[in-house]
Amino acid sequence: MNRKKFTLIELLVVIAIVAILASLLLPALRIAREKSKMAVCKSNIKQINYAMMMYHDDNNGYYPFSDNQNSSGPPGQYSWDDLLSSYDGREIRDTAALQNQVLLKSLGYNSDLYSCPSDTLQRTHWIGNAKISPASYALTVRYFGANWVLTNWARGITSKNPSRTQNISNLNSPSTTLTMVELSATNRIVGRGEGSFVAIGSYQNEQTPHEKYGKDNYLMADGSVKTMTFLGTLAKDGGGSGTPNDILDTLWDSEK
């Protein structure tokens, strides 16, 4: 019995159909893969928040501080993720290590909890990139002007001064108060005081690049994680929109 063979035209038609199907499926697969990465990021954020809640319990409700100038509080350079090490599973007991500018991988202080799989930006540091642990999350920061008056552009929850961090009991709208963001920046390293907090003005161009998905994960003070666009974070509770220079009543304002 003679077997029918594919003609060249039939073969080309099959290849064309496969190519069309692939072109239709690949974008959907990329989006699904990116959503999976975002889910990992969301899980990381929630676990960090659990550690922060335990920190609240031991520190009268205050958020952790980040001191990168040795100007206040205990000696040494601290990052808020240093202060969470007793609650996030790392259990760092070496005081000297905590006071260093970074926590080195070689000392066993690496933690995937602080790294988002979508954040592939290369970190840079003078001690060598192979020794540092990238971090993909930053707390919102608060800055004060003359006479300790809070600015209109940085009204977050952490501060360089431990006595000036926000207290969770002072938050009037926890469900719409932003406390932590995804951040992709070359200086965002686990254990580094500088770069561990962020004001909206510097953040607006440093969101995690979720393959043009257009949204990032944001932690609210009530522990919920919202996935939204950067512009969505500027929405005011009473309607309208703020700006990076005026964040009053937006998600970035912990004093509203």
Descriptive overview:
- A hairpin with a 5-residue loop joins strand 2 (142-144) and strand 3 (150-155).
- The protein has helices at residues 8-58, 80-83, 95-99, 200-203; strands at residues 137-140, 142-144, 150-155, 178-182, 197-198, 216-220, 225-228.
- The model has no long low-confidence stretch (mean pLDDT 83).
- The protein is globular, with a radius of gyration of 23 Å.
- It starts with 7 loop residues before the first helix and ends in a 28-residue tail after the last strand.
- The longest helix is centred in the N-terminal third of the chain and has 51 residues, at 8-58.
- The strands form 2 sheets. A 5-stranded mixed β-sheet has the order 5-1-4-6-7.
- By secondary structure, it is of the alpha+beta class.
- Helix content is 25%, strand content 11%.
- It contains 4 helices and 7 strands; from the N terminus they run H-H-H-E-E-E-E-E-H-E-E.
Strand arrangement within the widest β-sheet reads 5-1-4-6-7
Share in helix: 25-40%
How far is the first residue's CA from the last residue's CA? 84 Å
Largest sheet: 5 strands, mixed
Number of strands: 7
Write down the secondary-structure element order: HHHEEEEEHEE
Q: Helix/strand/pairing class, anyone?
A: alpha+beta
Average pLDDT score: 83
Please tell me how large the radius of gyration is: 23 Å
General shape: globular
List keywords for this structure.
5-stranded mixed β-sheet; globular; 256 residues; 7 strands; methylation; 11% strand; Type II secretion system protein; alpha+beta
